[in-house]
Amino acid sequence: MELIMARTGITKDDVKDARQRLMDEGQAVTLDLLRIELGNTGSRSTIQRWLRELENDDSTLLHDELLLTETIKTTVLQLARRLQEEALAQVTQAEAMHKAAHANWEQLADNLRTQIQDLTAQTDDLQRKLSSSEDSNKKLQEARQQDALTMAELSGENAHLKSLLATKDQHISSLEDKHQHARQALEHYRASVQTQRELDVQRHEHQIQQVQADLRVAQQTVMVKQQEASTLQAQVQQLTATLQHVETTSAHLKEQLVSLQTERRQLERQLEHRDTLYVELQKAFDAKCHDVQQLQAHVSDVKTQETIWLQEKAALTATLATQQQLWQQFSRSPAAPAS
Question: What is the pLDDT at residue 68?
Answer without folding.
Answer: 52
